[in-house]
């Protein structure tokens, strides 16, 4: 067993029976479960697996998941990698977001690197364009399978906003307020019908023109 106060870099005191146990269970149990069964620390088990060349098959212990991944779960992730977020797949499988991310990495699965690589790219873009005035970003994300953050970025880039365009009279008012030394949070009080973010962006733009 490991000595207290000594950082392990290798282990040599595993018995032949313990080594055989690792070989037989490395794909079935997590490192924590094997450690519990052998009355050893998780680090000792990981190091021994590495020394025995078993590390590529190791199922690491992650908080929230104690069971090894099944073929059924792997298929679910493979089928839904571009349809659901890691968090939603985790909820469906009873695992954590981090569990799913680590499993995707181990399986070599990646979401589309860019939205343009998605075969339904145009369809999703058209959906957002046609519905941004009547649906929230969260609702559009749910409908398209994109994340809320991704939908928000698309709307910002395409200038899809539910608000009316700024007019000349409003711009003049904002410039006057800026000259008075008011910051964008104070300016927002004069335009309650607009979002704080919208006012902030407008103030930043007009400040450069003063």
Give an overview of the whole structure.
This protein has 210 residues and is mainly α. The protein has 4 domains: 16-52; 71-107; 118-158; 168-207. It has 12 helices and no strands. α5 packs across α6. The longest helix has 12 residues, at 168-179. It is elongated.
Q: Number of folding domains?
A: 4
| β-sheet strand percentage | under 5%
**What is the H-and-E element order?**
HHHHHHHHHHHH
Helix/strand structural class? mainly alpha
Number of helices: 12
What is the end-to-end distance?
A: 72 Å
Rg calculated over all Cα atoms: 27 Å
* Number of beta-strand segments: 0
Low-confidence stretches: 1-8, 61-66
The residue fraction in helices comes out at 55-70%
Average pLDDT over all residues: 79
Coarse shape: elongated
Largest sheet: none
